Amino acid sequence: MVHNPVVVAALSAAFLAPLAAGMYSSNSPVLQLSSKNFEEKILKSNHASVVEFYAPWCGHCKSLKPAYEKAAENMKGLAQVAAIDCDEDANRRTCSEYGVQGFPTIKVFKPGKNGKPSIHDYQGQRTAKSIVDFLIDQMPNHVTRVNSKTVDGFLKERNGTSKAILFTTKGVATPLYKALAIDFLGSVTFAQVRDKETEVLKLFGVEKFPTFLILPGGSAEAVVYDGELKKEGMAKFVTKFSKPASKEEEGTESSSTSSSSSSSSAPPPRPTFDSTIPEAPSMEIFAETCGRKICVLVITPDKRPDLTGPEGANYYINHLKQTFPFFQVQGSKLSAEFAQGFSLEKSDKVQLRALSAKRGWYVAYEGDTESEEEMKIWIDKIKMGEIKKVKIPPFPGSNDAPPEPPKDAPAPEEPVKEEPVKEETVKEEPAPEEPAKEAPVPEEPVKEAPKHEEL
Q1: What's the DSSP call for residue 77?
Q2: Hey, what CATH topology would domain 1-19+279-413 get?
């Protein structure tokens, strides 16, 4: 693979602190955890989660990886499939707190009352299908089933907030609809009406199935959704009408017929379980990841903003990561030559640059980092080749030599040699005399994501 030497050298000078690579790459659908974000992403989440506690050297962990990533892809946007590297010094305390004694250990975190999740070990088969089926069963159900006897009470309850109603031929809520109800828990009430409830159908004038609509609250008329019945489009539609419950209504939240649990505090009305943008890795890993494709570099100011919240740039960026790989780097770690070459300003705001190391060009994002629509337009223009690309200029020095690292740059560290596992550390589970093939996905078809997108 051939890279533009100027870009490669410049990026090498920019990333002064190479990071160790875990078992899952930045493009993996698996939510990658650390001790710093474990509480926010798992313990405080309203979504059900499975977490793999692993070590990169573990043979069983490597065997599980294909099935685990496939399960994560299937459950994207519905529930969390996450992993934490217990071999990292910073993460060992968290792994110890949950009693991890062998690898891989998979634990299930299901939201419970008083904001504390119930936690237990996953005992099922380590196949994509088994993990998906199990996680679907663990999803909280905040969807209220409405019929002719309960519709009047449902409409009067919490009348100041929006209500989403799905009219369907199905008797139970699908994983997609459950996930939507969880995403907007505390700001929008979700309900489902069966096609057999003729009185309710007449009340709303519904004649076809499925039909999805919003009651904005108060005396406002219902608004019918006319888009594709997929989670992304439906979530955007609901967002227009979402608002937190008033103090008078917080104590009257309706309960689901199949789940009486309620949240102790109203979370943001948007999904909060996206993984954070990975730090820019060492040059070798960056070149391997981005050499054949376009990557987007997110440059943060010295005083780093919180990129984990649903209202920050990271929320929107994570929704676009499926197009290009995203990395972040702190502005102070970039050399002056690099900053000048990519037209970066000294700013307290987040800056984005899409670049191709192989072709030697970049594109600056000049829109609002908190505007999902503007970022999507920017990404689409890059994909379609409809945006002007700026050639990366030669850096100062003879023969277009790349910039040297800043004077205060630390000397490169010697490669860390992999040490054998000590007896007192967590050991890998012993393999059986006749190893069973854990990793390969079974022949029977796995529930693919499109199936969960159906209503």
Answers
A1: T
A2: Glutaredoxin (3.40.30)
